Amino acid sequence: MSNGSVARTMNSHSQHAEHHDPAAGKIGMWLFLFTEVLLFGTLFIVFAVYLQKYRFDFREASSHLDKLIGAANTLILLTSSLTMALSIGALERARKSLAQGMLVITIVCALAFLVIKSFEWSAKFSHDIYPKSEAMLLKPVGEQVFYGLYFTMTGLHALHVIIGAAAILIAMVFVQKERTRADRITFLHNTGLYWHLVDLVWIFLFPLFYLIG
After folding, report:
1. Model pTM score
2. What phi and psi values does residue 181 have, to the nearest 5 degrees?
3. Which of its termini does the chain have fewer beta carbons within 10 Å around, N or C?
């Protein structure tokens, strides 16, 4: 094969490797987020139905949740949404170090949320308050339903926080290697969209579980 043919082949491979379709990436992400909205939307509807059926029991169970902890986690996630948005804005201005710093703060917020949530769950387990426990089975049916939804929905949300934090770590690696940069920022944009959805879900979960009592 001639040197010219080799050069053309290498150039072709390079162009293929550099193929980037931000529109397709955004559409795919929005479709994925739509399925997430359907998932949590269905759970919110289930909660609303049982709230109407067991209003008194739901209020009684909610009164035993720590509102201060719930409020602290809300503030933490709102802060993380801000730092996520700031990281995207920084990278759009080609300020790589600032973008990385904001992503680090976002991950710290995610970890803080999970740590606080783990303490809250541990307190419930230490008091034998979890689905199918002896203490739980002695409670009214409505309170059993409330705590079942509480552990299911907050647990599912915590899983999404973990997935989001992992995506942010990947984004940090991509930014460091400049696979994600000012002119190629789709991955960070999509990661931000996912993270904002995670935060939005918690904004609904907080009043549903912690404030109805």
Report:
1. 0.87
2. -150, -175
3. N
Answer whether 171's CB lies under 8 Å from 191's CB. Answer: yes
Q: Is residue 5 part of a domain?
A: no
Q: Where residue 20 falls among pLDDT bands split at 50, 70, 90? A: low
Residue found under tokens 């991950």: 107
What are the phi and psi torsion angles at 124 (to 5°)? -65, -45
Q: Is residue 31 part of a domain?
A: no
The reply to whether 23 falls in a domain is no
Number of domains, the chain: 1
Give the pLDDT confidence of 36-81 residue by residue, as tens digits: 999 999 999 999 999 999 999 999 999 999 999 999 999 999 999 9
